[in-house]
Amino acid sequence: MEIYQKRAKSLLEEFKAFALKGNVVDLAVAVVVGAAFGKIVSSLVDNIIIPLTGLLSGGVDLSDLSLEIGAKALTYGVFLQSVLDFVVISAAIFAAIKIIRSLQRKEEQKPESQKVVEPSEEVKLLREIRDSLQK
């Protein structure tokens, strides 16, 4: 019985170390943020881009297209509409990423005087020593 308790404790400690590693936490945060970003993109596409493309194309909805083969209907329009939706969503994501990257580049191109540079640990320690000697 003692062996099982040791194994269970070891397994629990190993899982704890794995779960609290930086990579796992970063991945969890990325998944949550990605899901939220996905909702934003879906809303943008569904509520703004698709209606605008519908207006520009005269309200054409490809999902109604089908071909009757005997007693079965081949609904190729649903496939075409899915491909169109994919292209529109991909273009929207591409545009969002381009905007984000351009904002990042602008931040990186700021003059050195505007960037906040954190002093090194040695400088912090020397400042503490200087301040304590002045007292």
Notes on the protein architecture:
This protein has two domains: 1-58; 61-135, no CATH class. Helix content is 74%, strand content 4%. The chain starts with a helix and ends with a helix. By secondary structure, the protein is mostly helical. It contains four helices and two strands. The mean pLDDT is 81. Helix 2 crosses helix 3. The protein has helices spanning 2-19, 22-56, 76-108, 121-134; strands spanning 67-69, 72-74. It is flat and about 90 Å long. The longest helix is centred in the N-terminal third of the chain and has 35 residues, at 22-56. It has a two-stranded antiparallel ribbon with strand order 1-2.
Explain the layout of strands and helices.
Blueprint: H1 2-19, H2 22-56, E1 67-69, E2 72-74, H3 76-108, H4 121-134
Antiparallel strand pairs: 1-2
Helix pairs in contact: 2-3
Features:
135 residues, mainly alpha, 2 domains, two-stranded antiparallel ribbon, 4 helices
Briefly say what this structure is.
By secondary structure, the chain is mainly alpha-helical.
Q: Briefly note the structural class of the backbone.
A: mainly alpha
Overall pLDDT: 81
What does the radius of gyration come to? 28 Å
Separation, N- and C-terminal Cα atoms:
63 Å
In total, the number of domains comes to 2
**Global shape:** flat
The tally of strands reads: 2
Report strand %. under 5%
Helix fraction by DSSP (H/I, runs of at least 4): over 70%
Strand order of the largest sheet: 1-2
